[in-house]
Amino acid sequence: MDERNLQRIARHLKDEAAQRRVYHNIQRGRNEVTVTIGRAARLFGFSESQLRDWEKMGLIKPLRPKEESANKQTTGQRQYSFAELDKLAIIRELLDEARMTPGAIPPNIDEIWSMLASSTQFSEQELVETAFSEVNGSGEQQQDEHINKRITLTYRDQMVWRYYASRILWISLLLAYEPVPGCYAGLVLPAHTHNLELPVCEPANLQNVGESLVGWLGQTSSFFTFLTASPTFEYPSDYVIQPLCPPELLEKLPFSTADRTIIVVQRDELEHIQRDESVIRTIRRLLEPLYEEQDLWQHYMGKGRRDMVDVGMDFTPKLTDAVLTSLANMVIRLGGKRENGEDRWRDCCILLPSTMQLPLQQRSLIVRARSRFARHSIGATMVSPERQVTSLSLRAYQSSHIIYRPVLAREEVQEYYRDIEGPILSNIAVPIGGESGHALGVLYATSLECAAFSEEDQRILRVIAKLIEELLYTYRIRQNITETIGDLLKDPRMVDPLFKEFAAESDFLDDLEEILKTVRRQVENGEEITIPTATDESVQEISFIAIDIDSNVQESIANSYGDQTLHHLNKAIGLRIHDLLPALFSNHLNCKLYHIYGGIYCLLLRGFSLERSKNNAERLRKALEGSIAVKQSDLPGGTLMLPEISVHLGVTWYPYEKLADFLSPRHKRPVTEVRSTLYHSLDFALKLGTDTGGNIVYSWDSGTQTYAPYEPGEEQQKNR
After folding, report:
1. Contacts of 99 (CB under 8 A, 6+ apart)
2. CATH 3.30.70.270 is held by the domain 503-709
């Protein structure tokens, strides 16, 4: 062992603060009942792979108990003794604070620690008591804890678990219950097995399940996660409690600790509970990790009110949003006071578009939050392009500029708003967002003073608008998850519904693998090599055509119109290819189209010769060249005509002899390896088209035994 490293270790571990931290971690380790590799890694913020690596180095030595099975003796899961946990606490200290590497730490570091710690003026008991005071959060030591250390411990020890628990409870509830705007629902996870006779049990008896972890969906779609000693309701008769897993499925499915989960809905919303087996199976698997660590619920969620709240918003104008309302009130507060003690700014409103389905210039804005004394009505006060053309809010929303009137002329205030806003002398409308696109809404404020919104005030309003922007994005993401969560149960492989009409890359690989398995079976059985087709005819060759939009076209579209338009162009290209197949391919039933990714598509052709495949690829290139109409809902008229579109294509071809050779037993190549070879060859041919500037067909040339640009010959019509 390097003498300098030993000296560094000695200097560091003699330090009083270092010893307190080590004993703090040691005590945490000794308090843990389970010491599997997963628990040991999580306790000290390591990964399981790190612990395995250190075991190979001899730095730590977990126990590996022998387990007897029916036929043989196997080695069980790694178990970490208290001594090994002590060593991990010391290693944690040396890695974090002494900036040492694992290779510089000797295997007997625990002995070095014991010798150094015993030589200090502090006894082990004193250090352990200090560690206890830090853990329990009392005394001066808690206040003196370094900020970075406190943040690190919180991040490692609490954040991940609390994040997973809150999000998984939310997702699980969305799967189990179809949310109804303005209604409550929740999941109750009892810490212990209960004997409630569900589903006939009265809601008032829910408290009998004892300590429970609760995930609760509020009226505004906000979600709350908390630990309660016994779940109760102020008005139990408003609710119905049901087992998450209905009795008929409980008998069918294997046992799970998550089966004791209870779902709570309002009495008239019972029909919105989902009872599909796939839903229940999915939720049980998601919740099982929470039940497995129920001994940690108190650690993560207990000791006082430590509820987690994930704010949400009901985008219908039924309910007041508490967070947006508080920000509107904060604007008035930030405006300060006049000499007479009155607020300098009179009213503040947050206006959002009533619908996103109309073009920008046709959208109306509706008041979604207001300050305390504002007289605008939430969900009712609206400004529309047809009636309030001169509205500051509309102008700010449509232009993404701050619109400010330091001195208002009487004719600038419409009579309707004069009655609501009073004798205001200045007002301002600040776009919410809009730096890189359309604004999300408008922050509007008024004052009874002239020139009430200085440049400094405008900075303050911009900051508040930024907070609102973050909230709105969060709300909309959560709303999108709520609306699409059911789709993953119907088809977990389909993520982007824009391309649902097309077979995906995974389908292409599955189909190709099935062809290769058929050929291998025929080779092994000495049968004639034939490839199955959709028309039940036997063919002895397959070919592939890969199509991609030229990179210069993609770059131009993205820069001129944005990524969303490019995304829709990718779909439009696929639809055009699909529509062209019957016209360009005489036996189009033996052609299958796949969407690989982005603007890349692939055709699998059965029974097409190489020359015929190249000829069809060239005809397809010409047919795709030129203008194309792209459908996009946020465009005026819903359609955009994009000019000068071009593509490049790659063609590969394999006769049955080549496939048989690939799969011959003498080569010992698995089907998946051959499949990968064919796929990468096609990708290589397509990339050649990209490298040479696009608008070209690259194909396998039998004469030169390489890939080359395709030049149509005189026989192309004959080979159609």
Report:
1. none
2. yes
Say yes or no to pLDDT of 132 above 50: no
Rounded-to-integer distance, Cα 430 and Cα 518, Å: 66
- Find the helix or strand (DSSP H, E) in which 212 lies: strand 212-217
Backbone angles phi, psi at 455, to 5 degrees: -65, -40
Mean pLDDT over the full length of the chain = 83
Helices (DSSP H) in 318-454: which residue ranges? 322-334, 392-399, 415-421
Q: At what angle do helices 82-96 and 3-14 cross, to 10 degrees?
A: 100
Secondary element (H or E) of residue 243: strand 239-243
Contact 473, 437 (CB under 8 A): no
Query: What gap in Å lies between CA 674 and CA 596, rounded to an integer?
Result: 19
Model pLDDT for residues 87-118, shown as the tens digit of each residue: 999 998 898 888 788 888 888 888 888 777 65
Mean pLDDT of 475-490: 83
Extract the runs of DSSP E, i.e. beta strands, from 276-354: 308-310, 345-353
User: Which residues are CB-neighbours of 516 under 8 A, at least 6 positions away?
Assistant: 659, 662, 663, 671, 674, 675
Tell me, what's the pLDDT at 66?
60
The whole-number pLDDT of residue 125 equals 45
367/378 Cα distance (integer angstroms): 5
Q: Is the pLDDT of residue 556 over 80?
A: yes
**Predicted TM-score of the model (pTM):** 0.60
Q: Which CATH number fits domain 3-145: 3.60.21, 2.60.120, 2.40.10, 1.10.1660?
A: 1.10.1660
Q: Is pLDDT above 50 for 22?
A: yes
- Spatial CA neighbour of 447 closest among 391, 416, 408: 408
Can you name the residues that pair with 560 across neighbouring β-strands?
A: none
Which residues lie below 8 Å from residue 521, measured CB to CB, with a gap of 6+?
A: 527
Quick check: bond before 199 cis, omega within 30? yes
Report the percentage of the chain scoring pLDDT > 90. 38
Query: Which residues are CB-contacts of 28 (< 8 A; sequence separation ≥ 6)?
Result: 43, 89, 135
Instruction: Provide CB contacts within 8 A for 232, sequence distance 6+.
Output: 204, 206, 207
Position 162 scores a pLDDT of: 83
Identity of the amino acid at 408: L
Q: Cβ distance 437 to 462 under 8 Å?
A: no
Q: What's the CA gap between 505 and 516, in Å, rounded? A: 17
What is the H or E stretch that residue 227 is in?
strand 223-228
At 237-252, the pLDDT tens digits run 999 999 999 989 988 9
| Distances from the Cα of 669 to the Cα of 508, 511, 514, 521, angstroms | 20, 18, 15, 14
* E strand segments, 563-646: 591-597, 600-606, 626-631, 639-645
Give the residue from 546, 545, 548 showing the smallest Cα distance to 694. 548
pLDDT at 123: 47
Q: What would the pLDDT profile of 206-239 be if each residue is shown by its tens digit?
A: 999 999 999 999 887 889 999 999 999 989 999 9
State the greatest distance between any 2 C-alpha atoms of the chain, in Å, as a whole number.
102
Q: For the chain, what are the domain ranges?
A: 3-145, 167-310, 329-469, 503-709
Does the domain at residues 329-469 carry the CATH identifier 3.40.50.300? Answer: no
Phi, psi of 503 (to 5 degrees): -65, 150
